[in-house]
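User: Predict the structure for this protein chain, please.
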Amino acid sequence: MALLSRTAENLYWIGRYVERAENMARLLESGKRMSAIPRVADQPPPWEAILSAAGVLHTFKEQHTELNQLNTVAHMAFSQDNPSSIYSAIAAARANARSIRTAMTIDMWEAINEFWHSLLGTGPIEPGDGRLLPFLDTVKQKCALFRGVADSTILRNDTYDFLRLGTFVERADCTARLLDVEYFALTQPEDAADSPIDTYHWAVILRATSSARAYNWVYGGGYDLENMIDFLVLNTRSPRSLAFCIENITEHLNRLARLYAERHDCHEICASIATELSQNDAEAVIESGLHEFLTRFIARNNWLSSQIGRDYHFTNMALPIDPKPEDEDLDEVSEQSLNQAMS
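Assistant: Here is the predicted structure, written as structure tokens:
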């Protein structure tokens, strides 16, 4: 029996919220490490770049006048007024989970509920008190625990498919944003390996995505722009790459199509994105412009998410944090991109 649309919607957003909380932690970790690197005059401050990458710079400026670590951490981790903060994401995930407890396993509910209560017990983190990185590690571990519990306890039906769709849509968005912000921080984007500072930036992004060891296994170490793009954009063996995420979204959408005996526009959009990724190599991405490529991908990924909601009759009642305001101006780009790809 097919899920109710509201249940499917809640599962999809639980997947996105938990992944978003982890991604916020990864972006903050990246910002913390970037702030220790000297920057050239025309580069934005690292905290501004992180806020921009997270899509929350506008809400930050509405609430804070000084751009520093204290205010950035407060806004991205603990703010109740920022709908994308770790606090807000887990609060929303728990609220959605509570409304569909019978569609989840007991272990899944206990994992998200315990995560929420651990956040409530976390006090303000001051610069220099040594608590930021351990806190971010805890957030990543709690998110991984929830996914692990879900993977090991949930029935492999449409419940699982909608939950995982949310996870991979959100993960693809974060990887693209993180890669884009780090690319702009490079001192020599065209070479991207000649400067010790640029080498450190690549190390930061690999560490932020927990990919350093896997990268070294695949490429034997050393940082090269083409290898970085191949690993984080095109390599389907890399679990945080754009291609891996789209491959998994395709798999779960196809499972839903077989289960419901019906295909929708979201299947065509996903197929067009997968085709674009498979037909490009790193050299072609560089020639077309990495920033432009990532901007186009983010827009199309957001459009795919919206189309999934339309095709499976989500009501938007559980969508307080999407679309990100900075993404709205990309909708037109996404539609143009898809039309070109499908023509």
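The chain has two domains: 1-154, 156-342.
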